[in-house]
Amino acid sequence: MRMLLVVSFAVLAAAPVRAFDKTDLARFLATGSCAGCDLADAWLNPEPGVVRDTAAGDLSGADLRGAMILFDPSGFDMRGADLRETRAVYTAFVGTDLTGAILTGLQTYGTMFDGAILRGADLSDTGFDATFSGADLTGADLSGASFSRLAGFTPEQLSVACGDEATSIPGDLSVSRC
Questions:
Q1: Residue 59, Cα to own-chain centre: how many angstroms?
Q2: How far is CA 17 from CA 12, 41, 54, 162, in A?
Q3: Is 81 left (phi over 0), alpha (psi -120 to 50) or beta?
Q4: How many CB atoms lie within 10 A of CB 53?
Q5: Do residues 36 and 53 touch, judged by C-beta distance below 8 A?
Q6: Ranges of residues in the chain whose predicted pLDDT is under 50
Q7: Digit-coded pLDDT (tens) for 5-53
């Protein structure tokens, strides 16, 4: 029994612990912006007027791992943001700048990246139920990603991105190897 407790404690102690910074969350909820903030595992649900009034919020470089996005970040600056394992269901990233962002494991359903800037973004190993009409995928890594028929890619979009043999794109479109 004592050995089981010691092993259980060792496993729990080794598990990564993430928690958002409460001051950062309060600033985001009040202003709709928080560049470089730690919002990991937070529920991002600002008052509708806050986001609408900011027009283009700033979450560049923010740690959003595991967060739940419950607002519309269209037009936001999210360059370099870490969105690993973030939940973005029915979320619109329309015109959002996600240059260099990490989207690995992003959970999407009915999500829109129409007109988004995904230059150099990491979209690898993620299943996307999302639209990408007019999105800039220059240098984006799609390795191991799978896209639903909703993606709406054009050959021109995919000609500037890369992937691997595990990349799944609907239709007869393909992407060059990274």
A1: 12
A2: 9, 10, 32, 33
A3: beta
A4: 11
A5: no
A6: 1-17, 51-54
A7: 333 333 333 334 456 778 888 888 787 777 888 888 777 766 555 544 4
